[in-house]
Amino acid sequence: QEKLVESGGGLVQPGDSLRLSCTGTGSMFGDFVMGWFRQAPGKEREGVSCISLSMYNTQHYSDSVKGRFTISRDNAKKVVYLEMNNLKPEDTAMYYCAQQRWAYGRCEDVPQPDEYHFWGQGTQVTVSS
Q1: Could you give the CA distance from residue 92 to residue 76 in angstroms, rounded to a whole number?
Q2: In this structure, is the dihedral angle defined by the CA atoms of residues 53, 55, 56 and 61, taken in order, positive or negative?
Q3: Which residues are CB-contacts of 115 (< 8 A; sequence separation ≥ 6)?
Q4: What residues have CB less than 8 Å from 121, skipping those under 6 apart?
Q5: Residue 32 CA, distance from chain mean position
Q6: 31/123 Cα distance (integer angstroms)
Q7: The pLDDT value given to residue 1
Q8: Is the pLDDT assigned to residue 78 strictly greater than 90?
Q9: What is the rounded end-to-end Cα distance, in angstroms, of the chain?
């Protein structure tokens, strides 16, 4: 069982940066692919990025954030980060992290919500001038 807590959201202006954190509790935190997702009002939850187990060292990003967002993980601290740069109004959403449903999986494409579980409560990111 895993419990995930997101933090780091806020209200920022276009072009600003934020770093989101997702802190876990499970003893096998490092054995799972982790993903970041977002959901804007009236829209479906969409995958933003995933990061593989450290031994594979792969990351994937949605086209809308590629080149601006960076995902990383610190297994010793049981934290996954999402560094967001050059934020745009269209990045406004509730951001969630989640764990891939099976251990020792792969991050080979943009994460799909139905392949993840143990969702956190989310952290709100609002980009507005």
Answers
A1: 30
A2: positive
A3: 100, 101
A4: 5, 6
A5: 13
A6: 24
A7: 84
A8: yes
A9: 40
- What amino acid is encoded at 120 in this protein? G
The DSSP code for 16 is -
The angle formed by the CA atoms of residues 93, 97 and 103, to the nearest 5 degrees, is 155
**DSSP states of 64-127:** TTTTTEEEEEETTTTEEEEEE-S--GGG-EEEEEEEESSTT----SS--GGGEE-----EEEEE
Burial classification of residue 17, based on how many CB atoms lie within 10 Å of its CB (0-12 exposed, 13-18 middle, 19 or more buried): exposed
Write down the pLDDT at residue 54: 82
State the pLDDT at residue 56: 85
Q: How many beta carbons lie within 10 A of that of residue 24, not counting itself? A: 24
pLDDT at 99: 97
pLDDT digits (tens, 9 = 90+) for 96-107: 999 999 999 999
pLDDT tens for 37-63 read: 999 999 999 999 999 998 888 999 999
